[in-house]
């Protein structure tokens, strides 16, 4: 992802779920204040989930996820419901929509499933402008699900402010508390960023992890110096003292380690994102599974973004080459990208995931949980490269 793209991954993800024609898309339009979602009186207008990035006061930057009705049926309908379940894995807070005078059945199942994933749920009784006895309709829902719904009308905008208030009340305790750099840097530190601008770097732009890192270092009042790998020596030479921290692209970990001053801490963008987005402890435990790989093993490499394969691609070429050099040329390496991630992970002896800058933490943790549940070790690009380079115990993880 480049500097010019919208950095959706760090925004609060608010999923809107419900049966067809309960007014999910209309509610999004009411929250936003203009017609952005396609609305029709015919059920099933929304097919695949649609992600809409915006700023909502006082929530801040967020993504509204408009999903297909979870009562969609037929062969195509079941595929749509599958996409809706996938959207739930990315959801931080869920709005479950209820329409008046409809049977409350699937809503119960979905609320139970969402809560099992520790996703806060807000019930919304929509279409209040069409309800003659709002109290009875609200009581019926509360008696069925044990939760009082927010009464709203997407058409008249009634209850929209109450929905926003409910979202604020349900914000995760650690919302906006996590930082990428954690305890590695402090106010006033000189931090060197080693950022190869090779064939994989987008022309004229920086990739998202670099942009986010620079912004955080500025917010934390650090002094940031950016160099390409071939200018590392020059960058170190012009400083009056060694940098407190060097953050490098993982693919040049060993090169930077061999040149870094002894006083400087060393880590990588991918390693820091491992802690920011995922479960660092699970990643560092899992990387040791490399020792058990043989030529009969199968490794899955998972990449968050989708792009056309490039020469010397880190996931498609460099990491497989490092693994095969260690294990043997017959090692099988499979590759998935974007939202593709197998339900059944048991055929794999190890999963190596990218830094996941394009995913929110909720979604990455859902992948880790799936792997752990199936007893499949899962690690991260930067940690795997550091381990294969023999320097994992010499770098700073958090």
Keywords, separated by commas or semicolons:
four-stranded parallel sheet, alpha/beta, 34% helix, 398 residues, Rossmann fold, 18% strand, disordered N terminus
Description:
The chain contains 13 helices and 14 strands. By secondary structure, the chain is an alpha/beta fold. Helix 6 links the parallel strand 7 and strand 8. Helix 11 runs parallel beside helix 13. The radius of gyration is 24 Å and the shape is globular. The protein starts with 11 loop residues before the first strand and ends in a 10-residue tail after the last helix. The relative contact order is 0.11. Mean pLDDT is 90; it is low at 1-8.
From the 3D coordinates, which CATH architecture of the largest domain would you assign? 3-Layer(aba) Sandwich
> What is the H/E order?
EHEEHEHEHEHEHEHEHEHHEHEEHEH
Rounded mean pLDDT score = 90
Total helical elements:
13
Q: Roughly how many Å apart are the termini? A: 24 Å
Oligomeric status: single chain
Proportion of β residues?
15-25%
Number of domains: 3
Q: What does the main sheet amount to?
A: 6 strands, mixed
Which superfamily, in CATH terms, is the homologous superfamily of the largest domain? Answer: P-loop containing nucleotide triphosphate hydrolases
Calculate Rg over CA atoms. 24 Å
Order of the strands making up the biggest sheet: 2-3-1-4-5-6
Shape: globular
What is the CATH class designation of the largest domain?
Answer: Alpha Beta
């Amino acid at each position: 992802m480049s500097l010019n793209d919208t950095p959706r991954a760090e925004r609060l993800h608010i999923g809107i779920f419900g049966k067809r024609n309960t007014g999910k898309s209309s509610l999004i339009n009411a929250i936003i204040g203009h017609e952005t979602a396609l609305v029709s009186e015919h059920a099933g207008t929304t097919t695949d989930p649609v992600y809409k990035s915006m700023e909502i006061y006082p929530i801040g930057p967020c993504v509204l996820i408009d999903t297909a009705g979870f009562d969609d049926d037929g062969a195509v309908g079941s595929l749509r419901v599958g996409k809706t379940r996938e959207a739930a894995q990315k959801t931080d807070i869920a709005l479950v929509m209820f329409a008046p005078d409809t049977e409350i059945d699937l809503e119960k199942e979905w609320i139970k499933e969402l809560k099992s994933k520790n996703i806060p749920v807000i019930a919304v009784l929509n279409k209040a402008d069409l309800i003659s006895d709002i109290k009875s309709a609200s009581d019926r829902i509360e008696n069925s699900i044990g939760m009082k719904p927010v009464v709203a009308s997407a058409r008249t905008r009634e209850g929209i402010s109450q929905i926003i208030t409910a979202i604020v009340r349900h914000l995760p305790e650690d919302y906006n508390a996590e930082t990428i750099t954690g305890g590695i840097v402090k106010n006033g530190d000189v931090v060197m960023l080693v950022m190869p601008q090779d064939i994989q770097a987008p022309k004229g732009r920086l990739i998202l992890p670099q942009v986010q890192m620079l912004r955080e270092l500025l917010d934390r009042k650090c002094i940031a110096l950016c160099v390409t790998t071939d200018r590392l020596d020059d960058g170190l030479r012009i400083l009056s003292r060694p940098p407190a921290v060097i953050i490098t692209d993982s693919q040049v970990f060993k090169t930077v380690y061999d040149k870094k001053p002894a006083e400087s801490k060393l880590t990588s963008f991918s390693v820091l994102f491992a802690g920011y987005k995922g479960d660092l402890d699970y990643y560092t435990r899992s990387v040791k599974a490399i020792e058990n790989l043989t030529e009969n093993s199968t490794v899955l490499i998972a990449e968050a973004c989708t792009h056309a394969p490039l020469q010397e691609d880190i996931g498609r070429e460099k990491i497989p080459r490092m693994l095969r050099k260690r294990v043997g040329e017959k090692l099988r390496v499979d590759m998935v990208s974007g939202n593709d991630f197998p339900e059944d992970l048991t055929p794999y002896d190890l999963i190596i995931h990218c830094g996941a800058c394009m995913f929110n933490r909720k979604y990455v943790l859902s992948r880790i949980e799936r792997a752990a549940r199936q007893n499949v070790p899962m690690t991260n690009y930067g940690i795997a490269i550091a381990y294969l380079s023999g320097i994992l115990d010499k770098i700073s993880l958090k």
